[in-house]
Design brief:
The structure holds 2 protein chains of 2 kinds. Chain A is built from 5 helices and 3 strands. By secondary structure, chain A is an alpha+beta fold. A 7-stranded antiparallel β-sheet of chain B has the order 1-7-6-5-4-3-2, with helices on one face. In chain B, helix 1 packs across helix 2. The longest helix of chain B is centred in the C-terminal third of the chain and has 14 residues. Classes of the chains: A alpha+beta, B alpha+beta. At the A-B interface, helix 1 and helix 5 of A face strand 1, helix 1, helix 2, strand 7 and helix 3 of B.
């Protein structure tokens, strides 16, 4: 990855701030789960079998796009949406490391107060 | 995905003992491995030095938020962008901060401690690359410290 221009960095900063907000919604989580299956999907496909309107799905996809988690490509007249797992993966890795550090610190606290 | 970390640990020690280990700066420093300069006071910043070999240049800085005796102890701390000596800076004025909360409850065998850390949405992606947060300093080393601590003072 050599996309390190200031603009790009700014965009990444913004997108990561949006990441949690983007995921803090059941409908968007459902869309993400659906896209996790791997195949790019159109708005029609993502709407099918749900109680959501096309407009609602479009609105939620836009939020996910802004957060850098979803990208769209055109296929003929349709836009196809696919998941970009990288921002989530990065965040998850970070939280996993922080989490492990707490496990170790708390193990030390435990031996400290129980001795 | 959770945007916070939550840990529960059951401690076989009275709540007053756990409270002291958390809020007495010397005791806190001992298990957290940081040499603190003075007592924790709500609303005040507390400074210290990381005690891990190779990380002693790192300043540990927290702002104490709440000290509700035997119930809640909380602080915010500055995230550190780079831990290596060459790039490290002790100027935390622009550093993103997360909130750490220790909640204590009495339990059948002693104390149930819940630790949460939140505010990770404030940490930009480029701050997450160097994940050593100063208090860890290599966990292999840390595990040695623990086993030594336990075997020397059973």
């Amino acid at each position: 990855m050599s996309l390190k221009s200031p603009d790009r960095r700014q965009a990444r900063r913004a997108s990561h701030a949006l990441l949690f907000a983007a995921l803090g919604d059941k409908t968007r989580l459902a869309l993400v789960t659906r896209l996790c299956a791997g195949q790019p999907a159109s708005i029609a496909q993502l709407t099918a079998g749900t109680r959501l309107t096309r407009q609602a799905v479009t609105k939620h996809l836009r939020v996910l796009q802004k957060a850098g988690m979803v990208h769209s490509t055109r296929s003929g007249r349709e836009a196809l949406f696919s998941l970009d797992p990288e921002p989530m993966q990065q965040m998850q890795d970070y939280l996993d490391r922080v989490s492990r550090q707490w496990d170790h610190a708390l193990a030390r606290l435990k031996s400290f107060v129980e001795k | 995905m959770e945007n916070r970390i939550e840990k529960h640990v059951e401690l076989k020690a009275p709540i007053a003992r756990v409270w002291r280990a958390l809020t007495d700066y010397r005791e806190f420093g001992e298990w957290f491995r940081v040499a603190l300069e003075g007592p924790f006071v709500p609303g005040q910043v507390s400074h210290g030095r990381i005690l891990h070999p190779g990380y002693e240049h790192i300043v540990w800085e927290v702002l104490i938020e709440k000290m509700d005796p035997e119930r809640l102890f909380s602080f915010t701390w500055a995230q550190i962008r780079y831990h290596d000596k060459e790039r490290y800076s002790s100027d935390y004025s622009n550093a993103p901060r997360t909130l750490v909360e220790f909640r204590l409850e009495e339990s059948a065998n002693g104390t149930l401690l819940t630790v949460t850390e939140s505010g990770f949405e404030n940490v930009p992606a480029e701050w997450r690359g160097d994940a050593q947060r100063g208090n860890d300093g290599g966990w292999a080393q840390q595990m040695n410290n623990i086993s030594r601590h336990v075997t020397e003072k059973p």
